[in-house]
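task queued by scheduler; priority normal; single chain, no ligands, no partner chains; default sampling; output format set to structure tokens
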Amino acid sequence: MTEHDRSDDTTARTAHGHVQHYEITVRGHLAPRWSTWFDSLDLTRTSDGTTVISGPIVDQAALHGLLEKLRDLGIPLISLATTPTPDTTDPERP
């Protein structure tokens, strides 16, 4: 596999060049101050004792960096999913 072949696999951008949005669910409740540590992504505490870290992540390297931070902090990962990317060009959107 050449570097050119790998370029499509290593980007988190969608086919239209938009940055991919993710939802990462971790065990435990993280304080809002952790948002800065996680590149200002949104932190949402849920009633089941987990925290959802969500927002745009520019590429696979940034995603892996965020996952490494979770690992290094000993925060258990529950799930990782892509979410629909908001279309900011939609004239109907408020």
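post-processing summary
- The longest helix spans residues 60-73.
- Residues 1-12 have pLDDT under 50 and may be disordered.
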